[in-house]
Amino acid sequence: MARRSMRNQIVEAALEQFHTHGYNAAGVKTITDAAGVPKGSFYNHFDSKEALAVEALRHYREGRRDDLTGGDAEPLARLRAHFEGFRDDVVRLDYTRGCLIGNFGAEIADHSEVIRECVRESFQHWAETIAATIEEAQRAGAVRADLDPGTAARFLLNAWEGTLIRARADRSEEAFDAFFAIAFGPLLTAED
Amino acid sequence: MARRSMRNQIVEAALEQFHTHGYNAAGVKTITDAAGVPKGSFYNHFDSKEALAVEALRHYREGRRDDLTGGDAEPLARLRAHFEGFRDDVVRLDYTRGCLIGNFGAEIADHSEVIRECVRESFQHWAETIAATIEEAQRAGAVRADLDPGTAARFLLNAWEGTLIRARADRSEEAFDAFFAIAFGPLLTAED
User: Fold this and answer.
1) What sign does the CA torsion over B42, B43, B45, B49 have?
2) Which one of A50, A133, A187, B59 is at 20 to 30 Å from B16 when CA atoms are compared?
3) Residue in A176, A55, A75 with CA at minimum distance from that of residue B154
4) Are B160 and B87 in contact (CB under 8 A)?
């Protein structure tokens, strides 16, 4: 039990450190210090910082809001609220951090096959959930029928990831405003 | 003259190292080694690695293809060719590196005001050039008239930056295909 709990403490501290500082800037010592465990205990739990990063990313993915499926709201409203909730989190953190999946994708996917695979899988799963919501919204007549849901979902998620980077660079809502104006305007919305 | 040239060698090596490995993974020693200059000479030319990163980013920005303005092609065709050329560069490098502006934005903009300002400025300039091209294409009747060129340009550039991250994570053309299918289909294109 104690062993399991020390492992969890390390994963949670790693997620926080990787998200705040990036993969390379967050050293093992910084992570074990933040977790309040001795540095020597790290390798009892993880083979490498890379293996820890994969677990931290999985933990991040699981902890993210699961608000796309189910609920009473209309599918297009759910999709919009999904991104608005994410935007609000970033604004609350003064336009920092963004999305750990995208950050790892930009910083480290070129250099670690296991992290790249976890980033790929995380995007794929997310895009599939978005695609299902778009398809549902099409059946309800709220999203234009000429869009392929899979292609539109991929595009939308990629647009979102770029939007997060731009919002952080600008420290302003402008990138978010452009995202919502275009995505939930001309891009997705069916003409009345 | 020799001094100036050593400075240039360092900037060029830094650009290559930052683009390949990221900001934090590329140390000053790695950069001066790659430039073929003594490490000790670094601080004769730059106050900090941060100051060097700003210069490397400016150098990157200036070296990028300037194919959006002028030329004989129609504005919408120029815009498409602009992104296709960038895509081809990334595919040629086996889906690595992506865009240095976006990479710095994701990795380091939260932690360095001078780098964040340079990233912000680089995106802004790029988005303005795209906006001017979209406006030109609207006047030619090729892009739907209901789009605000500035908002559409910001959205498009952000979508592009996210597309680069996804393409690197997937090591496949799928993200690029979604970008071109949506951007140069339902998003921008005027109905006949």
Assistant:
1) positive
2) A50
3) A176
4) no
Parent domain of B88: 67-187
The DSSP annotation for B138-156 comes to HHTT-B-TTS-HHHHHHHH
Same domain, B86 and B22: no
Contact B9, B37 (CB under 8 A): yes
Select from B96, B101, B107 the residue whose CB has the most chain A CBs within 10 Å, as the one to mutate to test that interface: B107
- ipTM of this complex prediction, to 2 decimal places: 0.96
How many helices (H) and strands (E) would you count in chain B? 9, 0
CB within 8 Å of chain A, chain B residues 92-121: 96-98, 102-103, 105-111, 116, 119-120
Structurally, how many domains does chain B consist of?
2
In a domain, B192, yes or no: no
Which residues, 6+ apart, have CB-to-CB distance to B108 below 8 Å? A22, B23, B24, B53, B115, B116
On chain B, the residues whose CB falls within 8 A of the CB of A160 are 162
Question: Mind listing the pLDDT tens digit for each residue in B137-187?
Answer: 999 999 999 999 999 999 999 999 999 999 999 999 999 999 999 999 999
Nearest to B151 among A106, A158, A182 (CB): A182
- End-to-end Cα, chain B, rounded Å: 58
Spatial separation of the C-alpha atoms in residues B107 and A146, rounded to whole Å: 37
Q: Do B161 and A160 touch (CB under 8 A)?
A: no
Q: Do B36 and B75 reside in the same domain of the chain?
A: no
Task: List the single residue in B24, B123, B148 with the smallest CB-CB distance to A22.
Answer: B24
Looking at A30, A60, A90, the residue that finishes a domain is: A60
CATH number of the domain within which A24 lies: 1.10.10.60
Question: A190 vs chain B: nearest CA distance in angstroms?
Answer: 11
The answer to the question of residue A192 being in a domain is no
Q: Which of B23, B112, B115, B166 to mutate to test the interface with A (most CBs of A within 10 A)?
A: B166
pLDDT digits (tens, 9 = 90+) for B175-190: 999 999 999 999 999 8
- Which residues 36-95 of chain B have a CB within 8 Å of chain A? none
Cα end-to-end span (Å), chain A: 58
Whether residues A100 and A15 fall in one domain: no
